[in-house]
Please model this.
Amino acid sequence: MAGVPWRRYRDFRHRQREALHASNHPHPERHAPDEPGPVEQLLGEEEQPREGGPPAEGGPQTVPFSSPEEAANAPNPFGRAGAPLNRHSPFYVGFVGALGALIAVGLWRAMGRLTTTLTILVVAFFLTLALNPLVEWLIGKDLRRSQAVAVVFAGVLVVFALLGLLVMPPVIREGAALLNNAPDYVDSILNSKVVRDLDKNYDIVDRLQKEINDRLTDGSFVSRVFGGVLGAGRLVVNVLFQAFTILVLTLYFLATFPRVKQAAFAMVPASRRARVTSLSEEIMRRTGAYAMGQAAVATVNAVLSYVMMTIVGIPYAAVLAVVVGFLGLIPMVGATLGALLVATVAFFDEPKKAIIAGVYYLIYQQLENYVVAPKIMARTVSVPGSVTVVAAMTGGTLLGVLGALLAVPIAAGLLLLYEEVLLPRQRRA
Model:
C-alpha cells in the first residue's frame, strides 16, 4: 500500500485548507453552540474511507467537506468576526488623507534638510563622470584601476594647489595694499570738492562722525557685526569642509565606479537590463565628455585672458583670469559674465583699457563659438542651442550655478532617451 501515506497526507492537507477557509468565512448562527467545529473535527473524529479509495489505517482523521458551501457554513472556533471596516466613511477617508499629507510634509522637510548633502553627492558624481574617462584611458595603458585613480586624483590636487598659489598671493598682496592705503583714500574723499560742498551746506562730515560713534558704542550693532564676521568665518569653514568632502567622495566613486554601476544595473529586470545598461553608459559617457570639454574651453579662455590682461596692463590679471575660467564653466552666459567683469575692472583703472578688453572679448567669443568649442565638443554632446538656453535658465533658476552646470548634460541625457526610447516606441504604436 505504497499509495496510502501519500493519500493520507493529501487528505490531511485538504482538510487543513477547508478548516482555514471555514475560519475565514464564519457563519456561527447556522450551527448549535455544542456542534464540533472544523478544528475539533480535524482533531477528534475518525477518518472514514473515501469513496473509491483504500480504507484508512488508524489515527484520528476526519472526512473532508463535501462542498464549498458546507465548508463556508462550518462554525468558527475562534469567535465571530466583526463587520469589515468601511473604507468609504468620511472619517476613514479624512484620517488616511491627513496621514498621507503629514507624511508628504515630513518627507519634504527631510529633503530640505538634506539639500546640502544631496548637492555634495551630485557634484561628486558629476566630477566622477568627468574624471572617469581619464581613468579608463590610463587603464588602457596597462595600469590597475587603483593606480590610475591615484594618478588622476594627484593631478586634480596639483591643479587646485597651483590655482591656490596663483590666486592667494595677489589677493593677499592687493588686500594688504588696500588696507594700508585706506586712510589716504578716506582723506582724499573727505577733501574732495563734492564732499566739502555737502559738508558746508548740510554738515555731512559731523553727522557721519556722530553716526559712526553711536554705532560703535551700540552693543547690539557690535554684536551683529561680530555675528556677521563669525557667520562669514563659519561659511568659509563650511565651504572648505564641503570641498574636502567632495574630493573624498570623488575618490571613492572613482575607485568603486564599476561596482557601483554593476550594483545599480542589477536592480533592473533581466529582460531590460541590456537596454538600460547601454543607454546609461552612453548618458554617462556624454556627461563626462561634456564636463571635460567645457573645462578645456574655460581653461583656454582663462589662459588667453591672462595673456591679454598682462599685455594691456589691467590690474589683478591672475585673479581675474581664474574667475573668468570658473565663469567659463557656465554654459552660454559664463564667458560673457567674465568679459563684463574684466571690462569693468579695466574701466576703473583706465577707460582705454576697457575698450581694448571689450574688443578682444568680442573677437575671442566669435572664435570660441565657431572654432574652439566645436573642435573640443565634437565628440561630446549635441544639444540644440534653444534646448541649451532653456536648460541653462531652468537649472540656474532651480539650483543656481550648480544647476546651470548640470543642466546641459541632463538635457543631453533626456534628449538621448527621447531619440532612442520614445520615438521608436511611437513608431511601433
